[in-house]
Amino acid sequence: MRDLAIIGGGAAGITAGIYAARKFIDTLLITSDFTGQVGISAWVENYPGFKKITGLDLIKNFKEHLDMFEIDKEAFKTVEKIKKIKGGFEIITDEAAYQAKSVIIASGSLPRKLNVKNEDKFLGKGISYCVTCDEAAFKGKTVAVIGGGNAGLEGAIELSGFCSKVYVLEILNKLGADEILVEEAKKINKIKIITSAEIKAFAGNTDLEKIIYMDKKSNRQKELPIDGCFIEIGAMPNSSFVKGFLNLNKKEEIIVDPYTLETSIKGIFAAGDVNDLPGKQIVIACGQGAAALLSAYNYLYKN
Amino acid sequence: MKNNKEVIVYSTPDCAYCYTIKSYLQSEGVDYKEINIYEDEQARKKMEEISGQKNVPVTVIDGEVITGWDKKKINKLLNI
Fold first, then answer.
1. What is the DSSP letter of A250?
2. How many CA atoms lie less than 13 Å away from A302 in the CB half-sphere?
3. A77 DSSP 8-state letter
4. pLDDT in tens, A51-94
5. Cβ-Cβ contacts under 8 Å for A280 (sequence gap 6 or more)
6. Which pLDDT score is estimated for B45?
7. Helix H segments across A84-137?
8. Contact B51 A130 (CB under 8 A)
9. CA-based nearest residue in chain A for residue B69
């Protein structure tokens, strides 16, 4: 049995791994990928030390940093369940099971879907959840970004570099992104921001042709002709594998003690986007990865 | 080279899912050809034609098309 299992290879999991390796803790890091939500971010401009870097390049740097240390990894494995066993926990993946005395869950989050009519029908036929992956298909075209948070505006600014027109549709009456991004987006003529827009459906023949939304200001249904649409409405915690095992809140985030990051079961900690603490940011996930590791280290020492 | 099947990955440089597929194939010792469609309009059209959609990654294993990062399907086609 290992001393520690870390679940997740994003910002929180990698940071916990670096700290664990430096403390010579017998650790296994289990992850389905080494990208997390960082990898699908268009640009990152708020992580100290990197003035402007693509999300994928930043997470590659994190991974290279982790690889400097000797730490065992089981990559490309999806955790399906955790259960209590004598002296620790068993982590069951799609391929094998592993045992550890303590666990840090840093499984992050998954892109949230709108769950509106025809969203699945037009996936890949105009709809994408990743600007940096699929932007090339829309050079010179008219596109929309759903979501006025940081990811949405970063995406819109990126797309304005080569699309003829970029609409940003936000359900609330105000954008949620950092003011610096709102300022930047407003200065770009190609970007048109539409607030109070509740998406109702997507429409088209073979490919996506228009978005149907409710203008909540006038209470009228409107149609917006577009060639492509990127959905950037935040993320859902990747916590289904501990449902019924750990205490979750209504959003299905893992409830943690804000001081120790310990979950409802002693010896299991949760860091980053998957827990119920506010601030879903890379730098916060890294900080929590380090904090969770120090708590786990303390737990192992006492037990 | 672990197997003798032809593996092609259509990708773009900043695509995290493409990076995951390439890392996975490398970890399994599978040789593959990568086609970057970001600047190559013709390659992009070819990818859209064979997959019936525009999003990357698209992996083609001996003519069988897989859209997105789908480990189960890749494993099945490569007998991993």
1. T
2. 9
3. -
4. 999 999 999 999 999 999 999 999 999 999 999 999 999 999 99
5. A37, A109, A234, A235, A273
6. 95
7. 131-134
8. no
9. A33
